[in-house]
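Sample entry (198 residues):
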Amino acid sequence: MSANQTYLESVRKQFLYYKTLGEKAMDQLEPEQLFTAYNEDTNSIAAIVAHLGGNMLSRWTDFLTTDGEKEWRDRDAEFGHSLSDKEQLLDKWNEGWNCLFHALDSLSPDQLEQIIYIRNEGHTVIEAINRQLAHYPYHVGQIVYAAKLLKKEEWNSLSIPRNKSAQFNSEKFAEQKSVRNFTDEEMKRLSANTDSMQ
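Predicted structure, serialized as tokens:
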């Protein structure tokens, strides 16, 4: 397998991991909590989702042939009250991620050096992917943190639980060495956490 093909498979898994992380955080909340902001200078989870969806649709629609900042995008409105209920929020979330995954799945390894533009700034496709692979987890982290604040002591950890690092490391080092993407194990763990919450 070529390095470029390995890269495409790796970034797809990482995007899917962060998508799942955001969903597992939002799943713990009551619908109204998705629209709660800590104060007037912070964003609700709904606003973050609207922003992510708007960014993804703009960046990944016809991304090889058109600028990633589309004329039809209204970025400022994303941080307003563009979503009114949980169903609309989830529709926007899935629409954005589906656009991203469709674009990634349509790429061939030899296209990674192609130049595309975001606000007239040239990027290789690799650079554009890396840019968004930094941007989206940044906002997913905000979603997780906001959800954790809203749930307080009822929060179910999505990472290694507090004071359990030594146990986690002991279990990992007891396994045989293997080459795999870190998200493979993380996705299993997230699924197990979900099962234990139901």
